[in-house]
Specification:
alpha+beta, FAD/NAD(P)-binding domain, seven-stranded mixed sheet, six-stranded mixed sheet, binds flavin-adenine dinucleotide
Length: about 325
């Protein structure tokens, strides 16, 4: 069973992990509780995603499915706006992507299936029953499943909590985000520049995602609030900055939002999900290849996650003092 890897959740983190694990030679099974891939908010991808998607072998397909490639983020207030371009290489600007989450997940799913990952949608409740040596026996609905590695990619559901009771460290006050989609109106948002409108208690985000649709989100402290401008609310989510107190223990990893999450204004949720998936698979592979000890895996992964989390916090929190505890 040593090369069996089981992934809980088929969001971007779980799908990216499935591809990386198949490429690393693992026998991969993914259990997803929904009956298929599901829609999620968050169409704006940071340009840093390009080399990762290239490594996963899906970059060309993702780039072709993107509706727009934007240049950076515009910050607007009452007096005007400031554009922060992502960067450039020898004068050629880096561009982010606008892509529907379902389209991105479909491309990742097809690649993972092509590489031999097995998917079980509408999976029944999953529990860790017992450890047998270094292997784990899971119950999935009424069936049993033996595996060596388990990656919790269940997002905010924190599936693993039932097993290890581990919680999160919150770095901010409780933040809520309310999001939805509107028809393109006369508002000034431009295709090349998704906008953030900060205030003293949160922000509003608008991005052009197709020729007739903009995505919007509104972040507030405490309870979610709907902006009267955006009547069609489609969902709310917790956007509190949270870091898992136990992102890895022996052969159990948390990846993506299950490991660490920040409010969407960082614009890197998908990037974090994919990178943490690739990092977990990389460490598991080295355990087999070069006898990397479990304690080394725990030390490296925990340090890497918390380093990223706190460095983003240091960068963002001075510009948003209202979110500090
Ligand atoms: C309003 C909003 C806007 C955002 N905008 C952006 C953006 O523009 N760009 C960006 O990069 N990021 C954005 N993000 C963040 C980004 O969406 C998340 O960071 C990302 O979806 C995390 O991916 P994940 O795979 O870890 O978790 P998820 O996408 O939440 O996937 C988890 C999966 O696990 C499944 N699951 C849950 N529990 C179980 C269980 N018990 N058993 C089996 N399966 C289970 C779920 O059904 C789901 O398919 C935004 C977030 C919000 C809320």
């Amino acid at each position: 069973m040593t090369n069996r890897m089981t992934i809980i959740g088929a969001g971007v983190a779980g799908l990216a992990a499935a591809i990386a694990a198949c490429r690393a030679g693992f026998d991969v099974r993914v259990f997803e509780r929904s009956s298929g891939l599901t829609h999620q908010p968050g169409e704006t991808l940071h340009p840093g995603i390009e080399p990762l998607l290239e490594m996963l072998g899906v970059w060309q397909r993702v780039a072709q499915s993107a509706s727009y490639r934007h240049l950076g983020i515009r910050t607007r207030n009452e007096t005007g706006y400031v554009d922060r371009q992502y960067g450039d290489t020898d004068g050629t600007p880096w561009r982010g992507l606008q892509i529907q989450r379902l389209a991105l997940k479909q491309i990742l799913l097809e690649e993972a299936q092509k590489l031999g990952a097995h998917f079980c949608f509408a999976a029944g409740p999953i529990r860790i029953l017992q450890a047998e040596g270094d292997d784990l026996i899971l119950s999935v609905g009424h069936a049993h499943h033996c595996t060596h590695w388990v990656l919790d990619a269940s997002g905010q559901s924190n599936w693993l909590r039932k097993h290890d009771r581990s919680t999160y460290e919150s770095a901010t006050k409780k933040l809520s985000v309310c999001y939805g989609y509107s028809a393109v109106d006369d508002s000034e948002v431009e295709k090349d520049w998704p906008e953030i409108h900060p205030s003293s208690t949160g922000w509003i985000w608008k991005a052009f995602i197709s020729k007739d649709q903009i995505a919007w989100a509104r972040l507030t402290i405490g309870k979610p609030e709907i902006d009267p401008l955006f009547k069609h609310r489609t969902g709310v989510a917790d956007a509190t900055w949270k870091l898992s107190k136990r992102p890895v223990s022996k052969n159990l990893f948390r990846i993506g939002d299950a490991a660490f999450r920040m409010d969407p204004s960082t614009g890197k949720g998908v990037l974090r999900a994919i990178m943490s998936a690739m990092m977990a698979v990389h460490l598991a592979r080295h355990h087999h290849m070069s006898d990397l000890a479990y304690c080394e895996i725990e030390r490296t992964y925990t340090k890497w996650l918390s380093g990223w989390f706190w460095s983003d916090f240091k960068e963002i929190s001075p510009t948003a003092p209202w979110m500090r505890l």
